[in-house]
Here is the input.
Amino acid sequence: MQQLELYDTTLRDGTQYEGISLSVEDKLAITEKLDALGVHYIEGGWPGSNPKDAEFFERAKQLRLKHATLTAFGSTRRANVAVEEDAQVQTLLDAETDVVTLVGKSWDLHATHILETSLEENLAMIADTVTFIKTQGRRVFFDAEHFFDGYKSNRDYAVQCVKVAADAGADCVVLCDTNGGALPNEIAVIVTDVAKEANVPLGIHTHNDADMAVAGALAAIDVGAVQVQATVNGYGERCGNANLLSIIGNLKLKKGVDCVTDQQLESLTEVGRYVAELANMPPPTSQPYVGTSAFAHKGGLHASAVAKVEHSYQHVPPGTVGNDKRVLVSELSGRSNILFKVRELGMGVELSPPQASELLRIVKDQENLGFQYEGAEASFELLVRRTLPEYAPPFELVDFTAVVESRPEGGGSGHGISSRVMVKVSVDGEVMHTAADGLGPVNALDGALRKALLGFYPELEAVRLDDFKVRVVDQGAGTGAVVRVLIESTDGQTTWSTVGCSENIIEASWMALSDSLEWWLSRRAVASA
Here is the structure.
């Protein structure tokens, strides 16, 4: 059997995902990351479609890829135009890639109603363009667009498109489920049928509109497809493309196909998160293999079982794909979750069974009020420390007052909003009373608290608020609803999250904000002890 080829199209198909726009620098960086992962082909884009892709291919000539071959993507010649005179085809040659991927129609509907040409001319467009690119010394992959819909509509014509591309010299014909509606069993049957008639290696390109893209791709591979096209994190138009990372994980760990090395497989999680970062997209938390929740355990029975036998609730060891096991603390937790989490956080604290039970009760009571500690581990750590008799908080709130005013500006009809917060905090019995103005009450609260504490802890200057999220817990209560505030903070080296919850958004913000500073000061105190 020919070696299975991994073909990535994140830089072209993936950028059609809503909200993604990659710069040339982004695309060059992702290319090098995919090369290190061991991908065989990287589709850089469509050089004839926009200046950005043209610049990418020009700059990509300086890359020194170790594993991957860069490919340029474009379409067959236009109807009734000589291939030598088609400017778009010429741009494919100007990209100077060893491989050119051509897309052409294989659904009779598209030939007659979208291209508005004859079925015969569409076949000529395929044959002429493949032949011409081959005569220029390039390898050619032909993407038979909408193949599975075309097969169902007019089987003989769809297969004829594949044969024409093969006869013209295509090195691989890729059957595309462009609308994403084919089921895995259909794909297996159709690929098997085409392989009997077309003397050419076949590839598979699936979309996820029926949530079957990865399954469909694997089904095609099972019956002989030798190339699989996909994108990192499943990015792509509409519901996305087949997820390359899931395909690699399944091939390597479930089917024993050595499409990448063991070391490259361990970078799978890093690649997914790296591409998400450059794409300015949140990493999908529930994504198989590489998601932050892929090996997260929330139920008490699950956590207890994993602590005894790790694979009892994990289908593969997390480390094989560069991920980590996580145990979550929530109202669904058992004592095992609490004990595991305390060890995982490296607190250096040994809880007795009664202490763990009491802490579990506190967590459940807090979550019943609206708190949530899954994404606020710093607040959970403080919850643990506050149950210990020897813990002394670095500061305590005496009280605070928040004032929000709307004032006329310049005697006109416009109004400005001003916020002022006055805070009293106690540090070792000494009370500091300060005030600060801010863009809003939370901003003013942050300023006042810092002003009060900097005299005692000047090192707090390094801490800054990185993110602030508010979520309504009980939406049916209207403006009197309980809100949950999540704050993410950083000192430039470490990032941590805290939570507050109240019917008053300012009080909830105070809880999260004070937890953030208390956690950082407590950690430093423990480290220096």
The first helix runs from residue 24 to 37.
